[in-house]
Amino acid sequence: MIKDITIGQFFPGKSIVHRLDPRIKLLLTVIYIVMLFIADTFLGLFTGVVFLAAAYVISQIPLKMILKSVKPIVPLIIFTGILNLFFISTGETLIKFWIFRITTGSIKTAVFMIVRIIALIIGTSLLTYTTSPIALTDAIERVLSPLKKIKLPVHEVAMMMTIALRFIPTLVEETDKITMAQKARGADMESGSLIKRAKALIPILIPLFVSAFRRAEELAMAMECRCYHGGEGRTRLKQLHCEPRDIYAVIISAAFTALVIIIDRVNIF
Amino acid sequence: MEKFIEAKDITFSYVNEMEEPPVKTTVFENLSLDIYKGEFVAILGHNGSGKSTLAKCFNAINIPQSGEVLVNSMSIRDQEKLLDIRQCVGMVFQNPDNQIVATIVEEDVAFALENMGVEPAEIRRRVDESLKTVGMYEYREHAPHKLSGGQKQRVAIAGILAMRPECILLDEPTAMLDPKGRREVLKTIKELNKNSGVTIVLITHYMDEAVQADRVVVMDSGRIVLDDKPKKIFSQVQKLKALGLDVPQVTELVYTLNADGFDLDPEIITEDECVDALYELLKK
């Protein structure tokens, strides 16, 4: 049951997008976000969407996954749409009732904002779909490593994230076991009011916490036995290095961004 | 033989600061034990006899309050030698889940080497080598939580092995495994000892594992009560039973038969020896 949850919605594959250096993928995501935000016209935004569509086609992520990433933000999309529809009052008035006016300008802005938000979510989801959480953590550690100079615990945070990712399946399995053990002792978790059911979780959470602390202690000792002494002087098994494909990817994204800027200037649509 | 680990008159106690006044529990007092190079030593003793605590003194996880532990003539009190000591005396724990750090097998094996600052190409070589030694090379890209207990424990051993230690301490490595996993792990340990000359200190509850060692040390409430070859230890059936320990099934059988008036060699500890002796007996 809960054993099957996937963390970070990683969708394994062998496409060129999957094989890009995770640091470059982070950079590309940033470039893409900038691209969407500097696009002022529909044609500019459309260029961004074309870029996104191309990336999805290359990465071979199924359409179903794209819809899945949009689902949780549907309320936000509707809210943004309505807000823009009623509070922008440029252009010709189409419908007017009470204090609200729907104008051509407001419709345009509403549609524009909705497309932008959807493109933003789908685009950033591509990063988590094509990069394993561990590669992503690793990339974040390396990208942020200059911040170590100002005493930010970059390595420690990345290590914590790695260990958390490692222990999620273990703790999920344990939760399952404890739940079964408590049920076997007559614990009732499915009936009663919400408060009653929340209270029924306590006999699961307490053993889970106790065991998590015990695990943490043992893990710390095992890490010490393996010469762990912080991030200082650490090397890595897997070196990340930029391949030509990474450079091409950056050039293509930069070119698209330039295209968006040019289209915005020329087009007055 | 050359001494590898030398523990001289060590005393260790835990202090529980939570209690008021703090409660001090002495685990052992003035205990001495030498481990020789290339040996396979099994430490027996029931829960609370201090065997894990002692083992943790050998790689500077526990620092005794008094006495001295020398590892390869380095003192465990020497802070500068700490990483050297931990590199040359590796430790494997009971629960395989709680000692695997990374989400991919090969990255976990690489963990110690990454900490030691080894060059990436060398890490790659040693990781492959260690995984091949424990027979887990095909699983190098798997997620650890999908492996069986025995496989996980072998990955943990590979992680230690990659440091190229001269000695490996194993704290009940088979306690949480099924019989198949136990066999796999024990086979790996024996091969390391015989083929690579790694000194092994195996803490265990299982007599049939202790039988396979070169030397058995029996501990009881913080004291070393017996320290000899397995044959000499297990032939003292009554003494072991008095200490609350089991004896291997074959020894038990021989002991019972001898009590009934048969005349079998009381130093029989392996199944093969027992089969031969019984065959001889029945032939008569």
SS element count, helices of chain B? 11
**What is the radius of gyration of chain A computed over CA atoms, rounded to a whole number of angstroms?**
24 Å
What is the largest interface, and how many residues per chain? A-B, 28 and 40 residues
Main beta-sheet annotation of chain B: 6 strands, mixed
Report the count of strand segments of chain B.
10
Give the termini distance of chain A in whole angstroms: 52 Å
**Domain unit count of chain A:** 2
Shape of chain A: flat
List SSEs of chain A in N-to-C order. Answer: HHHHHEEHHHHHH
Main sheet strand line-up of chain A:
1-2
Number of strands of chain A: 2
**Which class of secondary structure composition applies to the elements of chain B?**
alpha/beta
CATH class of chain B: Alpha Beta
At the third CATH level, what is the topology name of chain B?
Rossmann fold
- Main sheet record of chain A: 2 strands, antiparallel
Task: Explain how this protein is built.
The complex is a heterodimer of chains A (269) and B (284). Chain A has 11 helices and 2 strands, in the order αααααββαααααα. Chain A has 269 residues and is mainly alpha-helical. In chain A, β1 (93-97) and β2 (100-103) form a beta hairpin. In chain A, α2 (22-38) runs antiparallel to α6 and α8 crosses α10. Chain A is flat and about 70 Å long. The model of chain A is unreliable at 1-7 (pLDDT under 50). Chain B is an alpha/beta fold and 284 residues long. Chain B has one domain: Rossmann fold. Chain B is built from 11 helices and 10 strands. In chain B, the strands form 2 sheets. Chain B has a 6-stranded mixed sheet, sandwiched between helices. In chain B, a hairpin with a 2-residue loop joins β9 and β10. Chain B is globular.
